[in-house]
Amino acid sequence: MSDTAETIEGEKDQLTDRIVAMILDAVEARDTTALDEILSPLHAADIADLLEQIDDRDRRDLLRLWSHGVDGDVLSELDEALREDVIAALPADALAFAVRDLESDDVVDLVEDMDSDRQEAVLDALEAPDRVAVETALSYPEESAGRLMQVEVVRAPVHWTVGETIDYLRSHDDLPGQFYHVVLVDPRMKPEGYVALGRLLGAPRAARLTDLTEGSFRTFRVDQDEEDVAYAFNQYHLISAPVVD
């Protein structure tokens, strides 16, 4: 184990003053190996916090030395004003790599204010379906529900049972990283309700999904103002809701 690794072994999962000092020493020494050993174990929120703490010169030097380590999760955690500076400092290929694993709504949030060249570099790095989803969202008015929506959702036919739904979920490895509801749709793909995962997992396999839906269900139009969406989420304690055209 290296001296650096030994030093950080007891505090590798948190951003302490000592860790910050070690990072700045490694930046000054242009020691990319030490930077990787110190930064890789840290949570994305801690790396974002670090970038917000240090001054402009150290931030630029750090991003130049460790650009491959700044991923989409780090960018999402950054304060919006600083995020623009960090994005501008990243090489185009590093920026494109950083957004590949983000959900579509997070990619939209990142690219909507970029200049056309950088936006195109990011879009080129996405798989074709993901690029279409982001471009579609960008076509909707700013501050609308269409700009906020995430296309990675889980849908099930309205006539399915709990058992059919669970079997479907277990057979697919491309589910969203996080989701809270299964949206029930009719044959025209119109949302008819949703079932929370907790109720789904606690019900018998033979139970029909329509018997487990929540009364809070509502939909939003793609062009609906985001203030209306925010009010409804707060007023009715929503976790998610379908966006429709």
Secondary-structure blueprint of this entry?
Blueprint: H1 3-8, H2 17-28, H3 32-39, H4 44-53, H5 56-65, H6 72-77, H7 80-89, H8 92-98, H9 104-111, H10 116-124, H11 128-138, H12 145-148, E1 155-157, H13 162-170, E2 181-185, E3 191-196, H14 197-202, E4 220-221, H15 226-235, E5 243-244
Parallel strand pairs: 1-2, 4-5
Antiparallel strand pairs: 2-3
Structure, explained:
- The protein has 245 residues and is mainly α.
- It is 51% helix and 7% strand.
- The protein has 15 helices and five strands.
- The protein has helices at 3-8, 17-28, 32-39, 44-53, 56-65, 72-77, 80-89, 92-98, 104-111, 116-124, 128-138, 145-148, 162-170, 197-202, 226-235; strands at residues 155-157, 181-185, 191-196, 220-221, 243-244.
- A three-stranded mixed β-sheet has the order 1-2-3.
- The longest helix is centred in the N-terminal third of the chain and has 12 residues, at 17-28.
- The radius of gyration is 22 Å and the shape is elongated.
- The model has no long low-confidence stretch (mean pLDDT 89).
Brief overview:
The protein has 245 residues and is mainly α. The chain has helices spanning 3-8, 17-28, 32-39, 44-53, 56-65, 72-77, 80-89, 92-98, 104-111, 116-124, 128-138, 145-148, 162-170, 197-202, 226-235; strands spanning 155-157, 181-185, 191-196, 220-221, 243-244.
Which key features would you list for this structure?
5 strands; three-stranded mixed β-sheet; 245 residues; single chain; 15 helices; elongated; mainly alpha
